[in-house]
Structure formats: structure tokens, C-alpha cells
Design a protein that fits this description.
4-stranded antiparallel sheet, 28% helix, 10 strands, binds zinc ion
Length: 279
Amino acid sequence: MRVQNPIHMPELPEVEVTRLSFASRITGARIVSMRMGKPLRWPLGLAPEALVSCQVTGVRRRGKYLLLDLDTGLLLIHLGMSGSLNFSELQGPEGPHDHMDLVTTQGVLRLHDPRRFGAVVWSPSEHAPQAVKLLGHLGVEPLGDAFELAPFQAGLKRRNSPIKQVLLAGDVVVGVGNIYASEALFLSGIRPTTKAAKLNKPRVAQLHQAIREVLARAVAKGGSSLRDFVSAEGKNGYFQLEASVYGRAGLPCRVCASPVKQMVQGQRSTFFCPTCQKY
Ligand SMILES: [Zn+2]
């Protein structure tokens, strides 16, 4: 079986850090022109010229989607496997991997995406089919107030799959990707293969806390390291430097010194400490 390399893929913290990097600077701007490059994962859904003179009213995030609110409709932006966004007053000439330039009165938002699994999709509203198709199935936001312990417990009780895969599925809680699922399970002492429904309440409470902690810490760190992330282009990101288990197969556990183990779950690499993660 081919194991996916632990390459850098934008996860929720990077998307949130990206949002914070340009949301206030683009808000209020009017669209002057829009250039789309090679086809992305999904088509834009309307002619780019139709967006000229629309005003950007804000930038929100839902899971790993950025929602660029316009006075009419919104743009849903996903960074896919290798995408990054840069907002700057002036951009240089576009390179072969720059597939969107959104030129506004306050700067140019550029999408750089070598593998083109990213997407920019227009929807007339958040409740229109175009948006519902992408956002409708997403679970609760792990960094928001709605991520409460009781519904999280109830959500896990209904699932008989391994906890790691339930976290990645995104319908109980959204945006906990491969790296942060591995890290949160380590912090809460849970084996990635344990069935979600088998976890007892105190253990789920620890996991709930750990998910918030690893994501919030990554967002906080990203704020000062955004440049590293944007220029990462497939290399390990700043956030992996301090990982407890992710990407550390064979290296000593930072808590007990046992070698960290790697296995494959649902074609994704999972890393865990066999000594610290017994539940
Ligand atoms: Zn350990």
C-alpha cells in the first residue's frame, strides 16, 4: 500500500492564520478585476468579470474554507493540498502556479497552488446549493463556543470507527486534520485505533481539551511565522517543528523516550507513542 508522505498540507490553523493575515486589509475593498489561471478542483461558477465592482464585506472561515463575503454573494476559497494566499498592494508578474488574482482597490489577493487541488467557488449566498454542497456537512468549529463537551461525547458515542478516523471525517468536529488529530490523541493518551464509542467520559473530556489546545497553540504560533508557511510550498511547516509524535517515527517520545510508532489508517500516516497512548 502506498503511504501518503507526511508532506505539508494546509490545516485549520494555517487557514485561520491566512485569514487573519489579510481579512482586515481587504475588508471594504472593491473588486477591480479578477484573473483565473488553470482549472482548479472546481470551477468558479460564473464569469470573473461579473464580480467587478463588488465590495468585500469581510472574511470568515468555516472548516478549511475561507469565505470572502461580498455585497452580493461570496467566494469560497479552499487551499487544497498545496495552496497559499498572499494579499499585497502590488504583486509581481504571475508565475505558472498562480491561478487566481483578485485585484481590488486595496490590494491583490493571489492564490498560488502548484498541485491545483484548491478551489475558488462563487455562491450567491451561504445557503445556496453551491455553498451548501461544500459547507453543509461540516461539523462544529473546534475553536468556537459551539464546540461543547456534551455534544462531542454524544457524537463519538454514535461512531464505531477508530477515533482517529472519526476526527478526520469532519462531521463530529471539523478541521482537525492529520497532524492535529495525531497530536491531540497523544496529549489525551488515546490510541488512534480505539473505537470512538469505547472511550469513557473523562477520556473524551481530555481529548476535547487537547483538540482546542493544539489548534489554538498552532494559530498563536502561526501569527508570527506566517512568512514561513506561505513560502513553505510542500516543505515541512513551522508547526511541525514542535510536534510530539507527528512525523517522528522511530524518534524517542518526548515524554517517556519510547520510540514513536507509525502506522497507516485509511491511507493516512498515524504516529503514536505505544507507552503514553494506552487507552
Ligand atoms: Zn511516550
